[in-house]
């Protein structure tokens, strides 16, 4: 009886030891899966036996807000231990995304610093330094049949009507007689501003990938402050049109003012010239200068031309 009890005790102790070993083994397995390094966001990390190495994206040079990232703008940075919160692992491509803020060389790129579209960055980030964005109301005719796209370059063609200058160029009959050409139509056309970048058209801004756009009513241009003031005045006094430049054409064209006479044929110009000569001749015949009169004083009373 005593021997049987001793055997059962030994067997029970053996089961207890086995149970303890099983618990220890299970704990070790769980610790290996949920240890201190298990929560790090570096799926591309490489262990060196003591800590994990993570590869994340960083900047290779100084960049401004609104920059669209290219291979030349980014580089791979390796960090050991904990990966910075919000850092983007190199397993996630970021080329083509836009910066929401200015960054310095070697700065870690966080998810919060980048946007997928220019809209998320805002139009202000796309305005070149020292320039201003001016919205221009357009029609199909003014905007080259809606073929203009953000990033294109245009010229502003301007037409100044004689009616806009009437208050300051009103010609009197005397002035017309002295200058017969003064009564001719003085409307003129010219290139007002050249080589202007288009920042946005309707709902699209520079950098958008969309190609199909509903007919738009506004085009936003990048102008220097002096150009913006000139265009504001010109827009109030005449009419304007946009002419689209070629992709590689940024040369300045000759700024030649076109007047109404340039639109006339040679026969019309001759008729105008004859009319002006006849008007000048008629005005010369109408000029009469009265002969000087002699004044004599007789007895304190004056007489003109011998009469009292």
Could you walk me through the main structural features you see in this protein, from its secondary elements to its overall organization?
The protein is α+β, with helices and mostly antiparallel strands and 308 residues long. The chain is 26% helix and 24% strand. It has 6 helices and 14 strands. Strands 6, 7, 8, 9, 10, 11 and 12 form a 7-stranded antiparallel beta sheet that branches. The longest helix has 32 residues. The radius of gyration is 43 Å and the shape is rod-shaped. It starts with a helix and ends with a strand. 16% of the residues are buried. About 8% of the residues have low confidence.
Write the layout of secondary structure elements.
Elements: H1 2-33, E1 46-47, E2 52-59, E3 74-80, E4 98-99, E5 114-115, H2 118-121, E6 132-137, E7 153-160, H3 162-165, H4 173-178, E8 188-201, E9 204-205, E10 218-223, H5 225-237, E11 239-244, E12 258-259, H6 266-286, E13 295-298, E14 301-304
Antiparallel strand pairs: 1-2, 2-3, 4-5, 6-10, 7-8, 7-11, 8-9, 8-10, 8-12, 13-14
